Amino acid sequence: MVGDPLVVLAISFAGASAVLLAAGLRGTLRGDAVNRRLERYAGREEKPEFESLEGPNLIARHVDRAVQGRGFAEALRTNLLRADLRLTVGEFLLLRTAVALGAFFFGFVVGRGLTRPILGLFVGMLFAIGGWLLPHYYVLWRARRRLHQFVNQLGDTIGLMANSLRAGYSLLQTMDLVARESAPPIADEFRRVVREVGLGVPMQEALEHLLRRVPSEDLDLLVTAIAINH
């Protein structure tokens, strides 16, 4: 079976898909991605919060342009931001395609070896569907987990902010204190607000960006209170 050209092809596709998967996940660690996005905030581009990051390859950029402005792409871009995954829509769609292809050929090999050869296609299709859906549900799961972590930290953060403001610190200094003294994800989000303001974005606009990334009712109340008092 190892010498079967179809098996060799399947293994090759699975390996290539794994490489693409690793490359895509590595994109979540690109530290300069936030800097590029914040620079666009300062430029006041339309919909700055949901601008795509520049893709690492030509195909991803073409996909980004092809889906730009479409509802599903905007929703996906929002979910990627909320999950703190620094991938463009194009990169993520390519990643899903790579995972689905890899899953198909893996399922094809497994199904072909355990059943009649024709059933390998059926098993491969089932694996491909699972491979296509898995990244989507991972993003939703990660976004929900991150939101839950943020909300759990918010009570202590409000206390820290109140003490800092009573001590005479400015609102921006207080947010910088939260960014330095708190744990992720709340530290990361407040750090983004501080950096946006440092790049010239008005405080209220930066807080609205924060609300889009973290759709919490409790945070909405905090932002409203800040807007009223500052």
TrEMBL record:
Membrane topology: Multi-pass membrane protein
Transmembrane segments: 6-29, 92-111, 117-140
Domain spans labelled Type II secretion system protein GspF: 160-226
GO cellular component, one term: plasma membrane
Short name of one Pfam family: T2SSF
Keywords: Cell membrane, Membrane, Transmembrane, Transmembrane helix
Entry keyword annotation includes Cell membrane: yes
InterPro entries per the UniProt record, alphabetical: T2SS_GspF_dom, T2SS_GspF_sf
Major localization listed first in the record, in broad terms: membrane
Domain of life: Bacteria
Localization annotation: Cell membrane
PANTHER family (UniProt xref): INTEGRAL MEMBRANE PROTEIN-RELATED (PTHR35007), PILUS ASSEMBLY PROTEIN (PTHR35007:SF1)
Protein name stated in the entry: Secretion system protein F
Species, as recorded: Thermomicrobium roseum
